[in-house]
Amino acid sequence: MSEDNPHSSRGSASRSWLERIANIFNAEPQDLSDLEDIISEAAMRELIDTDTKDMLQGVLDVSKMRARDIMIPRSQMATIDIEQPLSEVLPILLENNHSRYPVVNEDKDHIEGILIVKDILQYALDDKNNDWQWSNLVRPAVIIPESKKVDALLREFRQKRYHMAIVVDEYGGVSGLVTIEDILEQIVGEIEDEHDDHEDHDIKKMASRVFQVSALTPLDEFNESFGTSFDEEDADTIGGIVLHAFGHMPARGESITLGDLKFKVSKANSRRLMQLQVIQPRKSEEEGN
């Protein structure tokens, strides 16, 4: 009488999973649905962990995307006008904390090139240098169509060592931009940098009535700090409350008033809110004077 061997069973399952992957690649499938099923099954069998599954799924998703699917829309592009003096450019750099900015001539349909922030530092620090020219700083812009495949774009980013591309529609008008970070975030999730707010800086006072607030601030923490009573059944974070109130994904600069507080979107992308500016009313407004 034979007994079942659990180790043999697990080994058979592993071999079966590997054989199925080999068969899929040997068959050169026309779509990715079979491979997606196998990745999901591998995660369920704990042959790969959840993070690995998510990254593999992200890679498969990227292979099906076009530039239009992940671009930062035109309305949310932070740009610098080529006619702006250095004194007006520096506040834009400080407000947005990007490393690269499209430089435009009059409007966003006329892109002169890309400004890399590190290139401007030597001029910003030299008070005696008053004869600098934008033409010495602006680098050529890479222009791509909305239909550009994202996996091909990532390959070009790596091979040609550029990090930003301007996306144009079929008529040549600028419809947005894509950075290498936007693509990587599709694979590995949101990438935080040294400028992103962390948990210990969810709420930061900027002026007497103005606060910078992370959109991920827990609602109970926000209510306690501002004396509000937003319902935690509606959302877990203040960003969720604001997003629900807008009824759409707002662009940077859009504002809305909830109760006595004015909320202005100070940082967002096409997928989520990141930072909000919260403005309290003046005392005279509170007292009805």
Automatic annotation (TrEMBL):
Domain CBS: 71-132, 137-194
Domain of life where this protein originates: Bacteria
Matching InterPro entries: CBS_dom (IPR000644), CBS_dom_sf (IPR046342), CorC_N (IPR054115), FAD-bd_PCMH-like_sf (IPR036318), FAD-bd_PCMH_sub2 (IPR016169), Ion_transp-like_CBS (IPR044751), Transptr-assoc_dom (IPR005170)
Coiled coil spans: none
SUPFAM superfamilies: CBS-domain pair (SSF54631), FAD-binding/transporter-associated domain-like (SSF56176)
Any Pfam family the entry gives: NMB0537_N
Keyword annotations: CBS domain, Cobalt, Magnesium, Repeat, Transport
Family to which this protein belongs: Belongs to the UPF0053 family.
Free-text function comment from the UniProt entry: Plays a role in the transport of magnesium and cobalt ions.
Protein name: Magnesium and cobalt efflux protein CorC
